[in-house]
## 1
Amino acid sequence: MSDSIKVPEKTANRKPKWLRVKLPTGEKYKEVRSLVDTYQLHTICESGHCPNMGECWGEGTATFMILGNICTRSCGFCNVATGRPLPVDWDEPDRVAQSILRMKVKHAVITSVDRDDLADGGSILWTETIQAIRRISPLTTMETLIPDFKANTDQLDRIIAAKPEIISHNLETVRRLTRQVRIQAQYDRSLETLTYLKAQGTWRTKSGIMLGLGETEEEVLESMLDLRKANVDVVTMGQYLQPTPKHLPVKEFVHPDVFNRLAEAAKNMGFIHVESGPLVRSSYHAEKHIR
């Protein structure tokens, strides 16, 4: 990819200056930290080693992860633990909603691990979480960052019927790399899921792509076109960062100029909102995506 920095695998952790972030500090960060611990919540901010955790928590926002913190899938990029999940915690929806109320969150992002072990894929608890937030913190708007539910329309319909303002599902990478990066997921199945969500009247849909896994700029543009064909409204693009040596290596550090160029291309394709930059993650500046 032009304007990128190619890195040997053994030096992939030597991040360029544009990827350096400040350590989490401040009273607001400490308050959010305390609430997360008190309510025994899981956040993708922690599980995913998000580089923006300090910034977001410092502003009093966080992305909550429901259905536990053990995933049934083993994606090559993801730091969430893989294995046999614990039983569903049916008190979790109220705990999440109470913490959102206490944090005075105006716009909440909810995501989850994949629960292929459950007959409903976890969609019932998803619905109960959305309903609990509506009941306990009625002024809070929501983005739900969901799994593909294997494109099971009964499970997707539960999420749609709960009417979160935004339903998001990440494509994560380009078609050629999907089998390597996502393993149990399928590129076309994700597009099918996003297409169905919009066709059933979801107000705003969203997806995200990681860069730096060995894709070409042309492949990224093709993936964005596929997302537009699926009528996706919002797209995010950010730099993949290897969470541990056991995960897929960083193939390149993509220069901010490339992200800017891709952002312009995405806007020209007709996306309503675009977030594109090295430190962008799918929930970064999520409150803007509802405007």
## 2
Amino acid sequence: MYSYDITTPTPHFPFDVAKGNISGSKAVNIFGFNRTIGTTFETIWDDGGNYTFPTSAVQMTAVSSSASDTMNVLISGLDANYNEISETVTLTGTVAVTTTASFLRINSAIILSGSNVGNITIANGGTTYGYIGATLGTTQSSVYTVPAGYSLYLFRIDVTSGTNNGQKYLTFRNVVSTSAGRTLRVAEATFATSQVSFDRQVPFKIGEKSDFHFEAKSSSSENEVSIFIEAVLVKNP
């Protein structure tokens, strides 16, 4: 056991962040899953294929593939100025409902009660920006945009696949794009085991207003790939 003291560092910093004890910081846990990673790079997210970011802030529609889904869904993202916003919408089954707020980015979405029977799609103009698979209750997407005035520090990244073997390997990488238009494809790595883990002693920093996602490809056939990311969002001085 230990006693938290705001003036004294402790060896349990991540725990303090998760509890909300560290001013200006909060834990960010990102989960991504793609059932059909093929031989060309695509985003590790639950809707599959390559994720596309909106070009401007737009209202979103939320709809389920099942008429049984009438629960509230909390949509979290950023507005036109990259400031954090969220909105709760009430699903009306297979009839789309439109958000009041305009979202430049969708960082996550989660149901607030029950269990969703159908697939829930959050979209605009036919392009999906958030997807909740049936019965899952939340998005599984390695897509995130850092809010204005903050930096995101990646501490741990785990990538897993149950279909890897000695004759087949997976390649993944982090794609980071700034609001100024620069895109970097960094930390490319290849593995042929069921899991690879990167536990960073010095965290990887992603600056404000930066989009990022992880993408992967296989040396052959299709593969189920998941990713788990532990990060801390810190308010800039």
## 3
Amino acid sequence: MPKLYLLGGENVHKRSAREVNEKAFQDAGESLSVAVFPWARASFDRRYWRRKMLTDYFVSLGAGAVDFIEYSDSQVTIAQKVASSNLIYLTGGLVNALVERLRKMSVDSLLRDYDGVIVGRSAGALALCKKCVITCRDNQKARLVEGLGLADLTLKAHYKPRKDRTLQLLSKGGTIYAVPSRSAIVYEDGVYSFIGNTYVFENGKKCRL
């Protein structure tokens, strides 16, 4: 079973969640090889400028190799890249697109059988959960989306207090974990730990963890 780092969000340019990533990279061990899934974006432009930025960032955290897994890769190639990595990183973007693509290429099965560390940022974190809360920026509307279920919880990433009313209403039907940017839930074998400020909404009530 993998060890999951569910990161609420990060300004990668500013490396604002470096503390979380440092812990994840330390957990992954030495001679670190990182496999990145940039599949949450609408397109797969190889000139995507964040690729170099992410590579430089991860090298500064101790990675010896950083490999981007292309959506055009065969399932055999994807499986080989995953197997040769110590840490898998799922980027932010469109959670629905990410979940659909991971399932279509059978990556969900690879992730469940993976024995290393998986870091999901924003959409990447949401995709790893059983359910995730998607909220609109302009209003309080929200909806629940099915994730891959590696973590048996419902997650709201990029949490901000202005969404409290929405989360209070949704939590009357279940428990919701709310994680701001720069904070994370660490999940392993059903056990939770927390980095930074994280919150739980249950039965319409909010509690800080």
